[in-house]
Amino acid sequence: MKNVKDGIMGLVVGDALGVPYEFKPRKYFDDHPVTNMDGYGTHNQPAGTWSDDSSLTLATIDSLTSCGLDYEDIMKKFYAWFIDSDYTATGEIFDMGISTRNAIIKYGEGESPILCGGNGERDNGNGSLMRILPAAYYLHGKSMETEEAMEIIHNLSSLTHNHIRSKISCGIYVNIALKLLNNDIGLPLIEVIKNGVEDAVDYYNSKKEYSRELNHYFKRIINGEIYTLSRDKIQSSGYVTATLEASIWCLAQTNNYKDSILKSVNLGYDTDTTAAVCGGLSGIYYGYDNIPTDWLSKIENINYIIDLCDNFEETL
């Protein structure tokens, strides 16, 4: 198995790089491109501070390590983050999606974990996509049918985002990550991404309830148009399909970890999550050793994160 810290630290570093610039419009970056890891800005946090994207990812890893696949325990850990600021960089929560907040509150009121996520049209922010990467490591190497694996991915999404669009986004992303984890012969990055997309599409097209949604909202990913679009055709909002597209586009437009993350942040708007989602895949492909050391040196509580990764890897 590839090191867990490749993808997870790739995600955390991307998240931290984007935190100071969240919500800034793309025009800002045209005039002031980000080139390094800075601090303060939007959330007034020191350089290297990671957000809810990383916190919920780490909470998921901690749960999978200690309890295996237990949706109740994952939600307990999300609730501990929400109430006690567990899994945060500095002991402070400074950003939280509305759908995620609502789901955790529902859990606190006694709702069953996989029924907590909203399933309306407006419940398609990127809040489950940003934390779904641990599912790829959990599923990697396990002998299970595609049906069971996809059900796990969908259930993990449903903890906070239960709409079919969010589930498909997570399904495509995890299948890409699985192909990257299995890329022992060193296939080119875009080829690996395409293979992951193809696996997910084959599954969804076999399910009537998914196929219409898939071919309407994920068309540019399915037909390969996403790899060659110009920057002005890429959205970088907090909408789940926009984040998925932007992360794939940034990977396709670059050839190293650093550039993929800088390109993600310089798209503007939801900078931390775009860079986190891209960073997870980029970290798997390029590896921990290719994350800039000056960025890693600024990450808050990095040893805590690496310990969580190592413990998860040992459990797997």
What does this protein look like?
The chain is mostly helical. The chain has one domain: ADP-ribosylation/Crystallin J1 (ADP-ribosylglycohydrolase fold, Orthogonal Bundle). It is globular, with a radius of gyration of 18 Å.
Task: Describe the SSE topology.
Layout: H1 4-18, H2 26-31, H3 52-67, H4 71-84, H5 98-108, H6 133-139, H7 146-158, H8 164-181, H9 189-205, H10 208-217, H11 219-222, H12 240-252, H13 257-265, H14 271-286, H15 293-296, H16 302-315
Helix pairs in contact: 1-3, 1-13, 1-14, 1-16, 3-4, 3-16, 4-5, 6-8, 7-8, 8-9, 8-14, 12-13, 12-14, 13-14
How would you summarize this macromolecular structure in one to three sentences?
With 316 residues, this protein is mainly alpha-helical.
- The coarse overall form would be globular
> Mind summarizing the main beta sheet?
none
Number of domains: 1
Low-confidence stretches: none
Number of helices: 16
What's the N-to-C terminus distance? 9 Å
CATH level-two architecture: Orthogonal Bundle
Classified by CATH, the class is Mainly Alpha
CATH superfamily: ADP-ribosylation/Crystallin J1
- Strand fraction band? under 5%
CATH topology: ADP-ribosylglycohydrolase fold
User: C-alpha Rg, in Å?
Assistant: 18 Å
Instruction: Report the order of strands and helices.
Output: HHHHHHHHHHHHHHHH
Question: Key features?
Answer:
ADP-ribosylglycohydrolase fold, mainly alpha, 316 residues, 16 helices, 59% helix, globular
